[in-house]
Amino acid sequence: MVKVKKVKKCLFPAAGYGTRFLPVTKAIPKEMLPILTKPLLQYGVSEAVEADMNIMAVVTGRGKRAIEDHFDTSFELEHQIQGTSKESLLSELKTLKEKCTFSYTRQIEMKGLGHAILSGEVLIGNAPFAVVLADDLCDNEDGEGVLAQMVKLYDKYQCSVVAVEEVPKEETQKYGVIAGTAINDELIRVDDMVEKPKPEDAPSNLAIIGRYILTPDIFDILRKTPPGRGGEIQITDALLKQAEIGKVIAYKFKGKRFDCGSVDGFVEATNYFYNKEK
Ligand code: G1P
Fold first, then answer.
1. Degrees, nearest 5: CA angle 68-71-73
2. What CATH superfamily classification does 9-277 receive?
3. Is 134 in the pocket of ligand 1 (CB under 6 A)?
């Protein structure tokens, strides 16, 4: 029997400039912007750990050192607050650090999400892996997180899985959009996908959000993928190659997703977590 590989690795493309959040992102990585007291990236790492992943791989770029410092030990600070009421504020982060390893590579040139994912190959190797775009913040109050839901599907179908949600037709230009054949109410076998189509060209209103499980053959496909929309190497174009041989499933996930790359979504997420945690 072929030994099935579990998804243990999670890749976080985090090299982008975050221009929509200037001026704050001039010196602070957008992945470090806080929702309440936790940076966006920490929410993503928690979601991956909840899905039983323990190898975190981050594709960074210039000006992103705060990310590495966040997931490292700060001896002086931790010593300072040891035994005080403040200690508990770091306990969740401490648990994450104990449960997983963090490794980093730099994307030297900004050539798109597909290129960022390909830059992560050195950290991932020949294993299935998750991709989390930290500015898409997901939460499922009623049960397991989105990545945990997707890992179950990967285990069953053994192919790439993308999380999708319905968006108003006029917003298709912001997303990768899929089409295909329904397997059931929540799953679609994908046979078409287009990066940021105009509403009139969109094959549906099912938009990919920033959660993927990818099989490692995606790296070879990405290497051969020419620049697409915006002159960038698009993960959507590479996934289409897998979809053409029936190897991509789209999943209408359970839970909420906030577009924290936009000010509106960021404020919405802040209010949501404030009300949830107070
Ligand atoms: C990227 C992907 C797009 C996807 C989106 C989800 O776009 O290229 O296919 O729908 O993430 O957030 P970006 O938002 O980086 O422009």
1. 105
2. Spore Coat Polysaccharide Biosynthesis Protein SpsA; Chain A (3.90.550.10)
3. no
Instruction: Quote the CA–CA distance of 55 and 123 in Å, as a whole number.
Output: 9
Q: Please name every residue paired with 263 in a beta bridge, in sequence order, or none if there are none.
A: none
pLDDT per position as a tens digit, 239-258: 999 999 999 999 999 999 99
pLDDT in tens, 159-191: 999 999 999 999 999 999 999 999 999 999 999
Task: Find out whether the beta carbon of 48 lies less than 6 Å from any atom of ligand 1.
Answer: no
195 Cα: distance to centroid of ligand 1 (angstroms): 8
Mind listing the pLDDT tens digit for each residue in 103-125?
999 999 889 999 999 999 999 99
Q: Is 209 in the pocket of ligand 1 (CB under 6 A)?
A: yes
State in Å: Cα 100 to ligand 1 middle. 26
- Could you tell me the pTM of the whole model? 0.96
Task: Name the closest-CA residue to atom 1, ligand 1.
Answer: 175
Quick check: CB of 210 below 6 Å from ligand 1?
Answer: yes
Domain residue extents for the chain: 9-277
**Could you give the CA distance from residue 40 to residue 44 in angstroms, rounded to a whole number?**
7
